[in-house]
Amino acid sequence: MIVNYKRLLRCFDLMSGLSINFDKSNLISVNCEQGWVDQASGILGCKQAVLPVRYLGISLRANPCLVKTWKPIIDKVEEKLNLWKVKVLNKASKLVLIKSMLNSLPMYYLSLYKMSKAVADKLIGLQRRFLWCNEDGNYGIPLVKWELVQAPKKVGELGVGDAVLRNTALLFKWWWRFSKEDCLLWKKIVYSCYNINPNVMLAYQHLPWIWNFHWRKELFQWEMDLVHQLHERLRPVKLSTDRHDAIVWKFDKKGVFSTSSFLQVIQSEILVDEITSYSFTSAIWRSVVPPRVELFGWFVLVGRVNIMKRLSRLGVIPNSDNVCVLCKKEIESVQHLFLLCEVTWRVWCTWLRYFRTDWAVSGTIKGLFESWTGMHSRKQEQRKWLTGFFVVIWNIWWERNDRIFKIKEASVAKMQSRTILSYQEWTSSDPGEC
Ligand SMILES: [Zn+2]
After folding, report:
1. Sign of the CA dihedral 135, 138, 141, 147?
2. CA of 399 to the centre of ligand 1 (A)
3. For a FRET experiment, which of 175, 224, 409, 425 has its CA 20 to 30 Å from that of 292?
4. pTM to 2 decimals?
């Protein structure tokens, strides 16, 4: 029989011009006697190999539950997020790198295997270490929860994305293909392996319809709860006998499944209240200022900047050192430093004068941002005011760091002129211009 196979391959070679290099080919046997394998490999002139082997970058017959199966992916992430890069990259650049790394993970790996929790934890751990790492390579203080880093920018977060969700979306695509595509060999194999007959899922016993599910094993209690939820969901579904059945993905206008629409739905479902409470910050991502400034603005709005009050609460500095370096009177908190401090207030006033506006300012940074950015309907005006917001907070932070780390103090007039320079640098225009 092997001789016939070799003849077939030779015919294929002559007809297509694609010759097979037997020296580089392997014969992989499954449940065969060694004597037969030796003889067959001798006739073919190829080497012998045993499973698991690598094929198109995937380890065939490897156990996806084991961390070592995912080692190529973990190594790739580790290589991309190498710690030497933290010395030359700011947080905004690090986020870009983490996002690009997640997008470049081998999709075929994620679309074939379910990532185990241990692998997911390892991948997320590498991303967290990279983002929060200090310049000296030590793990720094995380400014926000990782869920906020992963959640989409559309709801005001950092939009890094979640490899686990992407994995689920890609695997779900198989369900879609299973239900939509006919006569596929793999589908027939699945049917026979699991003894599935899709026609017995529904039992019609006059009215109403009864869902008659068969499970491959005894269900655990938590699975029973899920089945109960499923029945609750299906109960209001009214089936009609005079129309053809069709499977439709209701989260897409055309009714066709896509991994991106799946991700959107799942992401919005799992958003916790804390994340949605920051949705007002989504207005920040307009690319009107450099990414590092935009990201800093976001940290200010969610109240997670390493100011004195936070550092003393975390025990990094003594309580006695938490006084604002601008006014030297009050405790340095986010609200104080960026809004309520008398020095900061004078800088905000410059900008109100520039924009020729009288305005009752809100007592919180969130209120300030919302009224500062929501005041205008014209797009051009909105961009101008948003830039104004960034130039003030960025320069306040700059001055505060100069005073702490460089023992250099600028006057309020100097700070005001610096904000104008930043505005001119970022927009190539003057704040007074319309
Ligand atoms: Zn102050």
Report:
1. positive
2. 12
3. 409
4. 0.75
